Each structure stands twice: as structure tokens, then as C-alpha cells.
Amino acid sequence: MVYRIAKESDAEPIAHLHAESWRNTYRGMLSDAYLDNDVFAERRLHWQKRFDNPASNQWILVAESEGEIVGFVCNYGADDEKWGTLIDNLHVRPDQKGRGIGTHLIQKAMDWAQENYPETGVHLFVFEANESARYFYEKMGGTNVERFLHHNEDNTEGYALRYAW
Fold first, then answer.
1. What's this model's pTM, rounded to 2 decimal places?
2. Which long-range contacts (CB under 8 A, 24 or more apart) does 44-50 make?
3. What is the pLDDT of residues 39-72, one digit of tens each?
4. How far apart (Å, rounded) are the C-alpha atoms in residues 91 and 62?
5. How far apart are CA 25 and CA 37, in angstroms?
6. Computed from CA positions of residues 112, 113, 119, 121, in that sequence, does the dihedral angle turn out positive or negative?
7. Average pLDDT, the chain
8. Can you state the angle between helices 39-52 and 11-25, rounded to 10 degrees?
9. The pLDDT of residue 38 is above 90
10. CA-closest candidate to residue 94, choices 4, 11, 9, 23
11. How far is CA 4 from CA 7, 90, 109, 115, 116, in A?
């Protein structure tokens, strides 16, 4: 497994992986119509914007196996005054889960945050219904510190949680 900083040409493969991950994981949390029809186009636009006009505190790392991106993490350093660096995305290709890729990605995200923003913590958001992700974040030492109603990308609403370290 190779871990490397993402480059602009990774926008499309990241968008594909992101859409695939959402389709696999968020069924029942986001609408089927969105997941089956609009998610890839929306994620492609989302990632193209991130690469075309990156925030100064943005950091994206990919996990690559045999030349294919199989996971990625995106951080925004010191994004929140109270909670610190935001892990905005952490996704592993569904057929690659259970191989330690997510663990390595989150650890590298934490290391980057500590190295570049040592005075702040780290936090992320997760759907309350995403029990496997919640278990993973708790196993990685995260604490559920907040529950709130979230307006989703498919124009639905659902509860989300903030995990903090």
C-alpha cells in the first residue's frame, strides 16, 4: 500500500470512490434516488472544486494499491475554533475494508493535524445511523460530543454526530 498526497488528476478517481462508498454505506441514510442517480455527478463537481481552488488549510491523502486509489482522507487544519482540524472525508473502497487502510488513513490525518496545527484538536461528523463508522471512530479513540439535525446533500434531513479527539 502506498500513501501519497493527492494531486489534481486524482479528482475523478476520488469522486468515483466517494460515490461508491456512499452508495454502499449510506443506503437508508440518503435517498435511493440520489444515490442511484445524482451522487457521482455531485461528488465529481465537489472534488473538482476542491482541486481547482484548494483552501490553504486543505490536505488530501490517498491510499493506492496497484496503481488504483482504494482510500482517501481530507483534512481542513484548524477548521473550527473550538474543535480544531476537521477530517472532512475518510473513505475506503468497500471491497478493501478490513485491511487496515482506514486505520492508517485516520492515523496519518491525526499526525498531519498534530504536526501542522498542534494547538488544536481533531473532529469529524458522521451520520448517527452509520453504526460501523461510529464503532470505528470510537475504537480509534474518538468521543461523541454532539448530536444535531443535519441537512443532507440529497435535501433530506437526518441526525449526525460530531466525534472529537
1. 0.95
2. 44/11, 44/12, 44/15, 44/19, 46/15, 46/18, 47/11, 47/12, 47/14, 47/15, 47/18, 48/11, 48/15, 50/11, 50/74
3. 999 999 999 999 999 999 999 999 999 999 999 9
4. 10
5. 16
6. negative
7. 97
8. 140
9. no
10. 23
11. 9, 15, 12, 17, 17
Burial class (CB in 10 A: 0-12, 13-18, 19+), 104: middle
Domain 2-164, CATH number (from 3.40.630.30, 1.20.1510.10, 3.20.20.10, 3.90.78.10): 3.40.630.30
Per residue in 12-31, pLDDT (tens digit) is 999 999 999 999 999 999 99
Taking a C-beta distance cutoff of 8 angstroms, is the pair 30, 22 a contact? yes
Query: 48 with 41: CB under 8 angstroms?
Result: no
